[in-house]
Recover the amino acids of this structure.
């Protein structure tokens, strides 16, 4: 967790591949984890979404530059309710102990 907080002291970036159920935390850019998923796991860009964990408010968020997809998602925020729900469900399950690890 300490490593995940190196770039931002009050925020942890989260990148997730919803199809393969992969989650990466930390780093300066969500795009770094996105490229890692694509190169290492054969992930498809359309399945990868970003957000974060706000350490101050203890909340998961669903906004990231990688969410900007001209034909699917015209916002930093995950607009589609089903995709947003899937993202939050996955990251909350994988990171359910995040608060206790900080």
């Amino acid at each position: 967790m300490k490593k995940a907080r190196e770039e931002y002291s009050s925020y942890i970036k989260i990148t997730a591949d919803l199809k393969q159920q992969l989650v990466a935390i930390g780093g300066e850019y969500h795009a770094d984890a996105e490229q890692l998923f694509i190169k290492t796991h054969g992930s498809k860009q359309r399945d990868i979404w970003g957000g974060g964990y706000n350490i101050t408010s203890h909340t998961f968020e669903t906004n990231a530059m990688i969410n900007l997809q001209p034909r699917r998602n015209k916002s930093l925020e995950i607009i589609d309710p089903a995709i947003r729900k899937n993202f939050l469900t996955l990251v909350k399950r994988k990171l359910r102990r995040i608060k206790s690890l900080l």
